[in-house]
Amino acid sequence: MVQSERRLKRGRQGEFVSKHVVARVEDIGPGERRVVTVRNRPIVIFNLDGEFFGLLNRCPHQAASLSQGIQAGFAIAEVPGTERCIRRGEFIRCPWHGWEYDIRTGQSWCDPESILVRRFKVERVPGSELVKGPFVAETVEVSTDEEYIYVEA
Ligand code: FES
To answer: Which of 15, 101, 106, 143 could lock 116 by a disulfide, CB 3.0 to 4.6 Å apart?
Structure first.
């Protein structure tokens, strides 16, 4: 299910992007993820407690599918024996060699300055806005009672 906005605008890197409706909000529950293809790009959408984030589904190291990885948190301790996990589920660990990426930013932990996964803007929008525009229904029946997730790509 992909619905696309006809108008194009410039993205973060100056390229033309458009908005593509990829799922209903209820299709990707908290803690879940889903791979969608937008403009021939595989993008994995993550739901972190109701916030949606999109990363290119390709590890910058050797191109493994990040959607096959494990979501993990960040362990901290003020003193020995007081370890606790924060930001639980907000990092994706590559299934091949274990490099980890922050789902919110795409940054790696091994080399945050230079290694990152391409991030896509993902937002939720009520169906009533889709009906009014600027989106155009192509193959999807849009209900004004539901919320949808769109990706800018
Ligand atoms: S392919 Fe992802 S860490 Fe190697």
So the answer is: 106
